[in-house]
Specification:
By secondary structure, the chain is an alpha+beta fold. The protein has a single domain, classed as outer membrane lipoprotein receptor (LolB), chain A (Clam), CATH 2.50.20.20. The protein is about 15% helix and about 35% strand. A 13-stranded mixed beta sheet has the order 1-13-7-6-5-4-3-2-12-11-10-9-8. The longest helix has 12 residues.
Length: about 300
Amino acid sequence: MRKMGLLLAGLIGLIGLSACVATSSPATPAPTHSPPVTLRAEPSPSAAASAVALPSSTPVKIPSPPFTPVLAPRTPTATPSAFGAALAKTQAAQKYRTALTLNLKQTGAPTYALDVKSDVSNGDSATVVQFGADKVEVIAARGQFYVRGARNLGLPALTKWYIVTPDVADAAQPPFDAQSVLAAVAVQTSRVAFQPGARESLDGQSCVVWRGAPKTAAETGIGDALGAGQENAFAVFDQAEMKLWLCDDGAAHQISLDVAAHHPKKPAETGAAKLLLRVWDLASPTLKIDPPANAETFRLATPTR
């Protein structure tokens, strides 16, 4: 599964986020205006690819949630055995599908809405990111990276696939992924008192739904996104519930979080957060990631003086 480094690369301010949305990832320098560039065709490294030039400015990542990160401790205390084993099994899977949605609302600010769907197969991955009206697709397959629809990267055509360098592909990735959220939740499960609830059917099997009530943003597993440790609309929890679906195959298949909170000094300034992460098709023998057809090579253009 992918590294945790994408877990929450730099998070921008809420006002900055609004500006980013008007123009659109683990996070993040504000968009900059690229100087005029020249697109030129170059010989393709293969018969299936042609070359175009990439704007010379640094790629701008997909906006992150509207708070400066305050990272949770990276060294977890002992987690409850049931959670630890289930989360470890899910994290260790080499093939799986995920769907992650995160919605943040704060008084007087636009809603931050992120939707990420990914397929992963033995290190290769295909990810679709929906951020507001913008849709970005990223494929990592057989040691190569491909991007389509990344408006914030200045691609010549949003409907074409482009072969890009790893740093450009990273800029197109979302600020959160399943691996990073699972790892963060694993750190926090020892700090939240979970109780087993009723069984529910999920992904064709029976699962026990465990419920817990985080008391602070730092205990949610997405403390970075909520600005844990800061005086903001998520500083004081009015209501919070986290649920984990631990299924009969011994893996964690779903995590949800629902938070209502307010500013400690401005009670009228409220915040609401909803997270849903589902993981399924673990070890699926049919899951495979293929490179897209007819991709063009996208290269940095050297500015001329």
